[in-house]
Amino acid sequence: MNQPMIQVRNLTKNYTVPERAPGLGASIKSLVKPQFREVEAVKSIHLSIDTGEMVGLIGPNGAGKTTTLKMLSGLLYPTSGEATVAGFIPWKRQPDYLRRISMVMGNRSAMNWDIPPLDSFKVLSEIYRVPQQAYQQTLDELIALLDMEALLKKPVRNLSLGERMKCELVAGLLYQPDVMFLDEPTLGLDIAMQRRLRTFLKKYNDTHAVTVILTSHYMADVTALCPRVILIHHGELIYDGDLDTLAKSLAPFKLIKIQFASPIDNFSEFISQFSSVEELPSEQGHHVLRIPRQEIPQVTATLLEQFPVADLTVEDPPIEAVIDQIYEEGSV
Amino acid sequence: MRHLKLIASFFKVSTQAELAYRSNFFIRLLNSFLSLGTGVLSLVVIFNQVETINGWSLPGTLALLGIYLLLGGLRGLFISPSLESVAGMDGEIWQGTFDFTMLRPVDKQFLVSFRNWRIYALFDVVLALGVLIYAIILLGETLSLGILLSFLLMLLASVILLYSSLLAFSALVFWNSGFLFTWIINDLFQLARYPVGLYPDWLRLILTWIIPVGLMTTIPAQALSGTLSPAMMAITLIFSLATLAGASWLFRRGLMKYASASS
Predict the structure, then answer these.
(1) What is the pTM of this model?
(2) Residue of chain A with shortest Cα separation from B259
(3) Which of A40, A42, A47, A39 is nearest to A83 (CA)?
(4) Are residues A167 and A262 in the same domain?
(5) For a tag site, which of A123, A236, B4, B117 has the least CB within 10 Å?
(6) Contact: A67, B263; criterion CB under 8 Å
(7) Do A93 and A11 share a domain, yes or no?
(8) Quick check: B37 contacting A, CB < 8 Å?
(9) ipTM of the complex model
């Protein structure tokens, strides 16, 4: 059997953070005798990710996502636990390991801002010892996929955020890493650019079988790219599985959106006969009903039979609402 | 070989970045001539009044000025631009981009020390070499091959000392990320313009052994004047290598600290 690309056991990270009461007096006191507090950022996480998988690492701010990514990339020593990525222990940061992974961050730039991207790429290819021919080939492929020929000769400083992000992706993929850590790659991008980057990542993953761990606050990124999600909350792994199952187990409801051909007087009365159906605020002239999955056929049939229905749709609740519910409740 | 190739790449890219700002060229050229001019002028004024200062003649002092300018030039050429990009409020550690540096499959100390170059500092280096050669011509007949070799060896030790001191002070950034510690060296370095023997005892001790900027210029100048004892030469060499080892150790500790606490 093949070894998983990423294997994590009991991975834990505690930080010591300075703690200080507000006010000048406390500031002076902390100068003489600083107080520290131990924070558990990641608590005993287990994971196993296969080659070529795209996994979404989700959780609210401060959940421990970035800390986990940093341990797996080798930037941080864990407090305890084990991990192997591509057969290496990440935090040893062996050059052979570093050549096989890549980290792209939406809020930090790996580019030199004063020169055109093409020059930065060339230096990176030398740092990563990419042979000239392979470099040119990979570069041509990435440039075509990202449609960025026109950007190559402008200084990075003059590029838009979306254009710069394309460059960051090229910088991260030039040496054809096996594992890619993407930390909020679509942060701050407009919808069209987000979609373009997603399409690119999907295509790239299909052709190169790169293993990807992606963190994002845009659920659209996760739903488009990651069949599997790992949910972290307060440093604990609370769900690891496919996104659909998560949504179903969390939201055993669906939404019916309905519009009538003529005004209806007794609709609220009609609703009240189903104890499990709840009417939500209407949206753009549509009544919205929240209904347990198993009652959908019966309610829909009754609605169609008794009312002059002009339009009726059955939808899953938006994934954001589902995730928000977990963040609020702290468990699945 | 690979490292030399990388340095060539870093130099090329830095030069490209710097040439984008054309006015810098003239300002830097003016700056180099001014710093040479004021240095030479002050020596001419002094040696118009006296033959020697504390045993230092004009050629010896001129050689010292040349060494001072040369070290300053090398510092400005790559040591400071590279090391200082890590520290300070717009530095990599404060901005969080040091993560990328940590993930490059290259020795981190090498990367941090050689990746940024300021080509205009080459003016300083060329002018400094001019002053040095002129001083050597003035010293003329007293020079032998042995003296020249010991001078070059001591010059190398000085470059190592300068680099190590700046590396050590830069490494402190891992303990206090917003602050640029290298200014301590940059300010004190001004004192290296004159022979360290001219300063009061307590200052001389500091400038020799604690923050050895005095040592960096005085020792090679003494070697060139033929007044440096073999014992002092050996001590300087050992001291510079020990400082390099100490600074590298501190830098590695800094990296470890970064990897256990950054967020």
Answers:
(1) 0.85
(2) A76
(3) A47
(4) no
(5) B4
(6) yes
(7) yes
(8) no
(9) 0.85
Comparing B23 with B163, which gets the higher pLDDT? B163
Q: B103, A73: Cβ pair inside 8 Å? A: yes
> Rounded CA gap, B188 and B237, in Å?
22
| Domain range enclosing B122 | 2-261
Mean pLDDT, rounded, of chain B = 89
**Residues in Cβ contact with B251 at an 8 Å cutoff, skipping those fewer than 6 apart:** B108, B109, B112, B167, B168, B170, B171
Q: Considering A190, A224, A242, which residue would you say is the last residue of a domain?
A: A242
Residues A155 and A266 in one domain: no
Say how many domains are in chain B.
1
* Residue burial A17-41, b: 16+ Cβ < 10 Å; e: rest: eeeeeeeeeeeeeeeeeeeeeeeeb
Quick: pLDDT tens for B52-77: 888 888 888 999 999 999 999 999 99
CA A194 to chain centre: 12
Q: Are the beta carbons of A123 and B95 separated by less than 8 Å? A: no
Q: Tell me, yes or no, if A68 comes closer than 8 A to chain B by beta carbon.
A: no
Q: Which of A139, A66, A152 is nearest to A104 (CA)?
A: A66
* pLDDT, averaged in runs of 10, over chain A (332 residues): 87 86 81 83 95 93 90 94 96 96 92 90 95 96 92 91 94 96 91 92 95 90 92 91 80 84 82 83 86 87 89 81 74 66
Q: Which of B9, B99, B256 sits opposite A126 (nearest CB)?
A: B9
Q: Taking CB atoms and an 8 Å limit, are A122 and B104 in contact across chains?
A: no
Do A304 and A223 lie in a common domain?
no
Look at chain A and report how many structural domains it folds into.
2
Q: How far is B112 from chain A (nearest CA, A)?
A: 13
For residue A293, give its domain range: 252-315
Question: Is B100–A67 a contact, with Cβ atoms under 8 angstroms apart?
Answer: no
- Amino acid at residue number A174: L
